[in-house]
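Please fill in the sequence for the structure shown.

STRUCTURE ENCODING:
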């Protein structure tokens, strides 16, 4: 018993073809004689194929294509998304979110976990009001009243995202500010504005010393 088919008509015949993508060209995963080419991946119906690892993403047959045949980088050796994978919009660069290795092409951050609410989300996106280290491997939510000391991301956190109150909207200590960092939220005040607040012992409206109230707003001897 023999079985024949027309190669290139887009109708896959399993008895005589390995694929049929409706064309007679090569280099696209399905050869001119309807044979699978090296590193080919196809859809379930074998009517659309592509070469996995060439860096060209074909949505009909691939979930991603990052230009290599390696595993453990978000896109597998058969161009499937791996567990916890995140990719760029074109699915040509992927990475594993939560492994603590930041990949700029596909991630906004990677803090080594898949938690939300810590500045870097479970899909490795920077969350609202977040501040991160330059390496983007440690983040914190500025303004939540809990100062993160990991990576020295926040110099202060007074529980809001206001500036000119001593602790800025990006959780840096503002000029002429004194803060109590032993409590959360941190209490900060601008020394020299004439208002006694936060951790100030006094505020006489200036930053002079030897006038009873020091330049850091403590009462002098």
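FILLED IN BY: designer on duty
SEQUENCE:
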């Amino acid at each position: 018993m023999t079985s024949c088919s027309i190669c290139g008509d887009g109708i896959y015949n399993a008895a005589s073809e390995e694929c049929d993508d409706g064309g007679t060209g090569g280099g696209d995963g399905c050869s001119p004689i309807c044979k699978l080419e090296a590193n080919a991946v196809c859809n379930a119906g074998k009517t659309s194929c592509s070469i996995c690892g060439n860096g060209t993403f074909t949505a009909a047959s691939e979930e991603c294509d990052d230009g290599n045949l390696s595993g453990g980088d978000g896109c597998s050796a058969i161009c499937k998304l791996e567990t916890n994978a995140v990719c760029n919009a074109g699915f040509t660069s992927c990475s594993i979110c939560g492994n603590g290795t930041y990949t700029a092409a596909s991630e906004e951050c990677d803090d080594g976990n898949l938690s939300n609410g810590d500045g870097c989300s479970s899909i490795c996106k920077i969350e609202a009001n977040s501040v991160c280290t330059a390496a983007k491997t440690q983040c914190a939510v500025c303004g939540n009243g809990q100062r993160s000391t990991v990576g020295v991301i926040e110099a202060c956190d007074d529980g809001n995202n206001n500036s000119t109150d001593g602790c800025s909207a990006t959780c840096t200590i503002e000029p002429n500010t004194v803060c109590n960092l032993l409590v959360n939220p941190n209490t900060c005040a601008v020394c020299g504005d004439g208002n006694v607040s936060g951790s100030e012992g006094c505020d006489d409206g200036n930053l002079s010393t030897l006038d009873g109230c020091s330049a850091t707003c403590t009462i002098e001897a």
